[in-house]
Specification:
The chain is mostly beta strands. About 10% of the residues lie in helices and about 45% in strands. The protein has a seven-stranded antiparallel sheet, with helices on one face.
């Protein structure tokens, strides 16, 4: 079941049309250049019958897979470091606290760890 967008259906939408001829990987590459602090990742998630989304595993850019041990908190929040906003999942992965974000455009990201100079 999806969300019906009246404005898009009526032709009055201000959103650009989705390009079906461009592979998803190319779209992700374009968005990766937005911020050096943002790392887009693949996520395997479970969806409950009431529509709740629960991320289970993160697949990093190099293909490494990390299971999410637990979800500590879920809230709507902005990433002050990387920019962007959406649903923030505060997770525990391999004993470390990780903030995983789900943006309204359907992409998942985590904040990159950067070396302070």
């Amino acid at each position: 079941m999806g969300v019906y967008d009246y404005h898009h259906d009526s032709g009055r939408s201000d959103r650009p049309e989705a390009r079906c001829d461009v592979p998803l990987a190319e779209n992700v590459q374009e968005t990766r250049d937005v911020s050096p602090y943002k790392a887009y990742v693949e996520v395997i998630a479970d969806f409950s019958s009431d529509g709740r989304m629960k991320p289970l595993r993160i697949i990093w850019e190099d293909g490494h897979r990390y299971d999410i041990d637990s979800i500590l908190r879920v809230d709507r929040c902005a990433s002050l470091k990387a920019g962007g906003a959406g649903i923030r999942y505060v997770c525990r992965i391999l004993g470390q606290r990780v903030e995983l974000y789900y943006e309204e455009n359907g992409f998942w990201f985590v904040n990159r760890k950067t070396v302070e100079v």
